[in-house]
Amino acid sequence: MVCNAKRENGHMQRVAPIQAASMGWPDLPRAPTTPIVKGVVKLDVPVDKYPNCNFVGRILGPRGNSLKRVEAMTECRVYIRGKGSVKDSVKEEKLKDKPGYEHLNEPLHVLEAEFPEDMVNSRLEYAVAILENLLKPVDESLDGYKKQQLRELALLNGTLREESPRMSPSPSMSPFNSTGMKRAKTGR
């Protein structure tokens, strides 16, 4: 599309867009010819197999940033739907039978995308690969992704403390010695 603009009172102002194709101008981009389609993949979250794993938190990340990164990388809109998708279980029970919340009767699941017809499958496959990786339970002590999320959360909250050998407290910096803070009295 080419925009026609006119000057008024020294400011540029958009008038109406003109289709390059309708003007017969060569070498200008034309409107896409492939239709936009909605592709939906229902990816089940294995909460039944791993009830102690917080999959929703793992997908969302701190303040939803991990989800936003997945959406930006894949250009797919990721929805978390189904039982357990609402944080407050009491509220979820109240909403369960209301219009628009029918998904709360289904198992927890994710994913949807809208693209030109020739791109939708490749984008969805990419998103599915990323989400399947996030939906694999990992031992917390070995989970680098969760450590990264916790570090990001501390950074967002302003509570991040960089740990380095030079930053560790020396013996004279202890809060329990005579030069530092004193211990609380216990009443003896």
Describe the structure.
By secondary structure, the chain is α+β, with helices and mostly antiparallel strands. The chain has helices spanning 20-23, 55-60, 65-74, 89-95, 120-134, 144-157, and strands spanning 2-8, 11-18, 36-39, 43-44, 77-81, 109-116. The strands form 2 sheets. Strands 3, 4, 5 and 6 form a 4-stranded antiparallel sheet that branches. The protein is globular and about 60 Å long.
Describe the structure in brief:
Helix content is 30%, strand content 18%.
- Alpha-carbon distance between the two ends: 83 Å
Topology as a string of helices (H) and strands (E) = EEHEEHHEHEHH
Coarse structural class: alpha+beta
Count the helices. How many?
6
**What is the number of E strands?**
6
Ranges where pLDDT stays below 50 over 5 or more residues in a row are 1-23, 170-183
What secondary-structure arrangement, pairings included, does this model have?
Blueprint: E1 2-8, E2 11-18, H1 20-23, E3 36-39, E4 43-44, H2 55-60, H3 65-74, E5 77-81, H4 89-95, E6 109-116, H5 120-134, H6 144-157
Antiparallel strand pairs: 1-2, 3-6, 4-6, 5-6
